[in-house]
Amino acid sequence: MTYQETIHYLYNVTPMFEHIGAVAYKPGLQTTEALDEHYGHPHRQYKTIHVAGTNGKGSCSHTLAAILQQAGFKVGLYTSPHIVDFRERIRVNGQTISEKYVIDFVDDFIKWNNESSTSNDEPLITNDDYSTNNNQRLYPSFFELATAMAFKYFADQQVDIAVVEVGLGGRLDCTNIITPILSIITNISFDHTQFLGNTLAEIAAEKAGIMKRNVPVVIGETTAETRPVFEEKARLVGSPIYFAEDIAEVISSSSNNQGGRNYLTRNFGTLVGQLGGNYQEKNTNTILAAVALLPAVGRADIANGFAQVCETTGLVGRWQTIHQRPLAICDTGHNVGGWQYLAPQIKNQPCKQLRMVFGMVDDKDIDTVLTMLPKDAVYYFTKAQSKRAIPEQRILEKATALGLHGTAFPNVKDAYRQAMSEAGPDDFIFVGGSSYVVADLLS
């Protein structure tokens, strides 16, 4: 197969949550364990750090990887979703996995899976009924196969350590076969409630499922509802627990002229962070609580990792400047928890006229997010190229009912072009609402 044919197989033959939503979600670890056994348990060949949470997983994972690279380690990084190309999900020292490796891995999987099948007419094997001893064909989801690929690639590349971001939840996520040296849970807010639960305590319990015996866990943010859940789970599994809020490493932060943030810290001096969103203050506090548990990391490594995270790891889409005069910024914040930080930052951005290119997907709480958006902006409502994207006309109708004013556009490119054509040099254009809106823009 060519690379494009391979990607077509991954996107269309293996169910992909990002494209089709709930029907692609496959809880349970049996298929993952079968793949892991077939590939020789590659994740046991290197150390890992496991990162879960509702928001901030990507920023924390990339920054930790950058810091570890600065410390001289060969670092694997597994994150999701990708923005433009599948290969962004799997990196070693910032370099994406090669097209050839992706092709060869999928080709080998298909050949092995076909050979291991006893019949071409078998029923689909789910995580509920699969046994590794039954010689039946596997039907992995997209994320299960991508995770197996990442773990094997890191072993083949002989990484020292891999930073592994949870896909969805934690307890039943297929990354949860690893036993890391450190677990991190960034925060808990309402997202993916159809899978994880309808209360913050239920969601926290699912994410707390990544805790392992004798493996320290850092909790970034808590609420009165989630903190007891984390404390009880840590007690049950014997996991030393550290609350970043109690450590309060970040004293204060402010935006800088380069689009990033400056941090005054208790034990690491003044840090200059390349990532500029206001929400990065919470992420930075979590990261610093985590690196304090990694003795092989020095202060210079931490400073350089924060200052060069985008170049070091390829991170995009976090309060990213894409144009000057008019200033245009995109951000992948996509749920209520993210917009609690984004909305005030957008409102406080100095400009003559605020213009917002905005779209969301159908499993997010769009009604609440719309109430958080500034009333004085000109809106360009749009739809990303995803089956889960909410139609732009429906967003327009909901927004109009809440006093927001704008026009609907069938795709992100047209919406952004119209915003740019109408903007003066002192206007501010924000593009976001969904990772897929940002993906369409940057691609």
Summarize the structure.
With 443 residues, the chain is α/β, with parallel strands linked by helices.
Task: Identify the strand order in the major beta sheet.
Answer: 4-3-2-5-1-6-7-8
User: What is the overall shape?
Assistant: globular
Give me the count of strands.
17
| Arithmetic mean of pLDDT | 91
Catalogue the unreliable spans. Answer: 17-24, 119-134
Q: Enumerate how many helices there are, as a single number.
A: 18
Residue fraction in strands: 15-25%
End-to-end distance, in Å? 24 Å
Helical percent range? 25-40%
Q: What structural class do the secondary elements suggest? A: alpha/beta
Describe the structure.
- By secondary structure, this protein is of the alpha/beta class.
- Helix content is 39%, strand content 16%.
- It contains 18 helices and 17 strands.
- It has helices at 3-12, 17-20, 30-38, 57-70, 99-116, 142-156, 193-196, 200-207, 227-237, 244-247, 280-291, 299-307, 309-313, 336-347, 366-372, 392-401, 412-422, 435-442; strands at 47-52, 75-78, 90-92, 95-96, 161-165, 182-185, 217-219, 241-243, 250-255, 261-265, 270-273, 320-323, 327-331, 354-358, 378-381, 405-408, 428-432.
- An 8-stranded mixed sheet has the order 4-3-2-5-1-6-7-8, sandwiched between helices. Strands 12-13-17-14-15-16 form a 6-stranded mixed sheet. Strands 9-10-11 form a 3-stranded antiparallel sheet.
- Helix 4 packs across helix 12 and helix 14 packs parallel to helix 15.
- The chain is globular, with a radius of gyration of 22 Å.
- Mean pLDDT is 91; it is low at 17-24 and 119-134.
